[in-house]
Amino acid sequence: MIKKVSSIVLFTVTVLLLITDNATSQTGAITIASVEGCQGDIIEIPVVATDLFNIGAITLFIDYNPESFVFDTLLNINPALNGLLFNDVEQPAGTLPGGKIAVSWSGFNSVDLGNENLFILSFLYLGQNDSIVFSSNNEVADFEANILNLNYQNALIQLSEEVSITQQPIDLSIMSDENGYFTIEGNNINNFNWQYKIAGQWISIQDNETFTGQNSNTLNIYSPDVSLNETYFRCRVLGCNNMYSDSVQLFVQANSLWQISNEKFISVYPNPASNFVNIKITGVSESYNLSLFSVTYGFTQILDNYTYNKDVLTINTGQFASGVYYILLSKDNNIQFQKRIILYK
After folding, report:
1. Cβ atoms of residues 100 and 62 within 8 Å
2. pTM for the complete prediction?
3. Burial of 235 by CB count in 10 Å (0-12 exposed, 13-18 middle, 19+ buried)?
4. Rg, C-alpha atoms of the chain
5. How does pLDDT run across 40-79, given as a tens digit for each residue?
6. Where are the beta strands (DSSP E) in 199-317?
7. b/e 19-54 (16+ beta carbons within 10 angstroms → b)
């Protein structure tokens, strides 16, 4: 909330500064920091004091252009400046640059400000390069009411450059027991959001045992399931603007200890399915395991806790959410065959 004070209270401190006509030199400065910002964002601009000692009173006037900035408030006021007052002063029509912030403080004890923030200016930034400057009549006095000759340094506020991608991710082909990664490089990027395309929709990837680095420029992939074969990936990069990388594919090949010949296969019906699904396996004499892998949620459900040889198995699918799944046939934890199914409610 912006503090509003009357001009009488705001400028009372100047009486202290008029006690003497002589200005005293210190090698100090007050600096408005130059920063970059994004259009439409709240920007925070430190106002820094350097080499100010035995200070008893401060009066500052800071000018800004309302076409470039909308004043919000002062933040993080230095604890030594207890009782500091500020006001966004209403200017007469036609006054340039049009915005003025008045700041006033006086204390019962002197303060030393060696190299620290006085406060932080908070503005809504409207997105054009502009200056925030000290106006005239700024006065800082020591505790004996001597006005100090200080260096007042202004700020240039610049619009941050747009995000750009300098290196796109590329397709990745690995075995199911290998590791790999997608990576992206760019400029002015503040955050990354890796996504993959599941059932025609782009979904943000969650860090888990298969993926790490979701919010970095590199998405690491560890021993991916063959159900991720031919899945599309992309990265959304965020800064002052947002953009997407090229879409790339992950190709996963099972590293099998045994092979299923062409006449060995798995069929699933009905497909799409609702409350149940029949699984028929033909031409497999060895024992094996069946599991259900969710593309959307990434979990694997063992369909039978025992190895078995069955021609047809009926599975109750009413407990599973709608989505894309894979029936996986495996032996010794190696995927041998997969069948894509769709469940709906």
Report:
1. yes
2. 0.52
3. buried
4. 33
5. 889 999 999 999 999 999 999 999 999 999 999 999 999 9
6. 201-204, 211-212, 218-222, 231-238, 242-244, 248-253, 265-269, 276-282, 289-294, 300-302, 312-316
7. eeeeeeebebebbbbebebbeeeebebbbbbbebee
